[in-house]
Amino acid sequence: MHKLQTDSNGQASNAWRVLVLLLLANLLNVYDRVIPAVLAESLRQEFSLTDVHIGILGTVFTLMYAIAGVPLGLLADRISRRKLLSAGLAVWSGFTALCGAATGFYGFLLLRVGVGIGEAALAPAATSMISDLFPPEKRSRAMGIYLLGLPLGMVIGFVTVGAIATAFNSWRAAFFIAALPGLLIAALCLRIKEPLRGAAEPLNAVKAVTPSRPIKALLRIPAFWWIVLSGVGYNFAAYGVITFLVPLLQRYYKLPLGQAATLGGVIIGGTGLIALSLGGFIADWAQRKNKNGRLLVSTVSLILGAILTWYGLVAETASEFAWLFGAGWTLAYLYSPCIYPVLQDLVAPQMRATAMGTYFAILYLFGAAFGSVAVGALSDHYADRARLMAGVLELTQTHRATGLHEALVIVPMALLVAAAACWIVTRLPRHGGQDLE
Length: 437
Description:
With 437 residues, the chain is mainly α. The chain has a single domain, classed as MFS general substrate transporter like domains (Growth Hormone, Chain: A). The protein is built from 18 helices and no strands. The protein has helices at residues 15-38, 40-47, 51-76, 81-99, 105-119, 122-133, 139-147, 149-168, 172-189, 214-219, 222-251, 257-289, 293-313, 318-332, 335-346, 352-390, 397-407, 410-426. Helix 1 (15-38) packs parallel to helix 7, helix 7 packs across helix 15 (335-346) and helix 11 runs antiparallel to helix 15 (335-346). 60% of the residues are buried.
């Protein structure tokens, strides 16, 4: 491994170049993940699906992402992170292309499993590398830039996927085209010069020894569990929204696919560009003012986000919904650049990828995996209730619209759970990974 030059603050000489590449990888990670969400109505009609089936697509993908995250996190703490990143990109891009050739629901579902396993390599390796490239006082802004891949991927995905499907008159084209840039970034990742683990830590930092059983040591930290609960609540909400926002705009607000996808990209993608561009700087500033600054920012932003998204869901027009829900989602986005550095500072540098992989595994298993399927199940339930109340036998698109609209009220409730968990972490000791043995 090459030894990198660092400045007086411990920042690696290639920090910004690597960060841009990791940002692009994260963008593609999100882009490939949201393609089925944009094309949900097309997939439902092609394979004769219910909303539960659409939710299951997200759930199975997320479960595989979560299960693979722990071993890949352990692996990222032990082998070359650049090679792991490259392999992950190649795997998920290949399976994304194959999704375009699926001939049935279950075949498509299995191929999405492959995408999930490949994508699980990114977060543990990338966040661990960022913490070794940038000193502690710059980590929130660095994480914020990396996390811009989330809204960028959504904006580009929501805008282009619908346009590609319309232009080619086929939903399959979007999967084929999406695979190409991933293979290019996979090749570029092999050229990264990795930093040494812990290279950006202050010179006077206590050097912690990596525990022989790192996961067991991690699970003994009370603050870790509350951080995980915050992630469960946040990702439950996020995956419910990502999976069903475009169908909501199509059904409830009667927008065509192209317009619904574009507006959806603005609501949950464009808002993220604003929040994450500023969020890292806000979090770092708050942390300089208060030892719990990052956690306080995430707590307040999640509470306000829950209030505004609820008001958005009771709005009557698409424009009112977009403004209110978008404002709430902007605030909710501040969660990630705040909480990721808190988690990274909780453990020794040699355990950061393991901590991130374990964090993602648990929150995806119990949060994200159930967000989409819970909204889908509630949507089907409320749709059938609307049918019964109307006294008819056939389930219409109007009933489906009503059901989905009512089901999404669970989103602000989940954001409040995340806010409560963040607040509790402020009351707990955090030792920077020094007493993990």
